[in-house]
Amino acid sequence: YPRPLNNNNNNNYYNCLLLLLIIIIITADRGWRFRKLDPPEDLAVLDSGRLGQMQITWRPPSSLTKMTKCLPQYQLEYFNTYKNNWETLRTPRRTYSTQFDPSKDVHIKVYTILNGECTNNTMIMSKNCAETILKPPSTGQAFICVYHNMENLECSWTRSLKTPPSALHNLYFWHKSLDQAVECPSYILSGGVRKGCNFSGKPLPEFTDIYFCVNGSSREGPLKATFFSLQIQNQVKVTAPDKLHLQTSSDTELEFHWENPAGRLPGHCLEWEVRHHHVGTDGKISLNHIHTEKPRLTLPFSNSNERNCFQVRSRLNSYCVDQSFWSDWSHETCHPGSDSKICAPLHESLFRQIKITTIFLNVLCVKF
């Protein structure tokens, strides 16, 4: 800096330097005060009674209780198990509500953010966070739901080895169209014990996440609650085909076709598995499984003395749902028919052999 020319200028010069120094100290002090910003406190996760709809709450750090020049904001991070990634949002609020899968871990983090006059308009976020991980209870209890023919849903559960004999189970369910969780409309009993729930009188929505809770009580005290979630269109079990048709279309082809199950099942969503049991004229037996997307099958046929037997089962394909159950196997149909004496099926031949062997052993026992 140039040397001042007189005393007045000299005083003004040093006054300016002093003022500049004060500004630098104040600015540095503001930034220093929040260099170690504390995270929020009292992070809590509350169940709203909707089986997975959780309310997350927290308080500002106690070090900011007297803060007036800056209103704190918060960065909330939680793991979305439906999308399998972290969700991040910023909010001035101290509460947030969202849906979690209660059958999986709930992982939440919250940071404090300051930005404004108190930080010289520089955004500062706490390095540490308030964090919580809630793990679902493990009871060793199996739970399965089957949507029979897309008409009737049944859910069942098993009692674990630790379940007291006097235990009484309850099932509650919730989806986004309900205000609160609802109890099972009709329990399935086995030996006077609740083993499942029938929803025939209360249909549930498809392509919607539905949350279930199985809890209960006993003389020894309350049972641990178990949570499950699913979409019912992924639990379909089709009725076994019962109208089978088997015939020869010519001397060289055998045609096997069947009808789709009755009901609201979309025909284009069905896939089929055929079990083909073949007995050749030489007595050689083969068993094949054939997959098809059409309710018909044509096979080569060369000799009327050979025997072909078929069974079929079906399920919804992966183009329409994420998963489904195979139906039971249909009854067996054969060519030639069961009244024919040509090449009897394997189980008939085996039965005859057992019968002959039994008679032979009885004769031996009488002799000796």
Automatic annotation (TrEMBL):
<feature type="domain" description="Fibronectin type-III">
    <location>
        <begin position="240"/>
        <end position="337"/>
    </location>
</feature>
<keyword id="KW-0325">Glycoprotein</keyword>
<dbReference type="InterPro" id="IPR036116">
    <property type="entry name" value="FN3_sf"/>
</dbReference>
<dbReference type="InterPro" id="IPR003961">
    <property type="entry name" value="FN3_dom"/>
</dbReference>
<keyword id="KW-0732">Signal</keyword>
<keyword id="KW-0812">Transmembrane</keyword>
<dbReference type="GO" id="GO:0009897">
    <property type="term" value="C:external side of plasma membrane"/>
</dbReference>
<keyword id="KW-1133">Transmembrane helix</keyword>
<dbReference type="InterPro" id="IPR015321">
    <property type="entry name" value="TypeI_recpt_CBD"/>
</dbReference>
<dbReference type="InterPro" id="IPR013783">
    <property type="entry name" value="Ig-like_fold"/>
</dbReference>
<keyword id="KW-0472">Membrane</keyword>
<protein>
    <submittedName>
        <fullName>Interleukin 13 receptor, alpha 2</fullName>
    </submittedName>
</protein>
<feature type="transmembrane region" description="Helical">
    <location>
        <begin position="12"/>
        <end position="28"/>
    </location>
</feature>
<dbReference type="Pfam" id="PF09240">
    <property type="entry name" value="IL6Ra-bind"/>
</dbReference>
<keyword id="KW-0675">Receptor</keyword>
<dbReference type="GO" id="GO:0004896">
    <property type="term" value="F:cytokine receptor activity"/>
</dbReference>
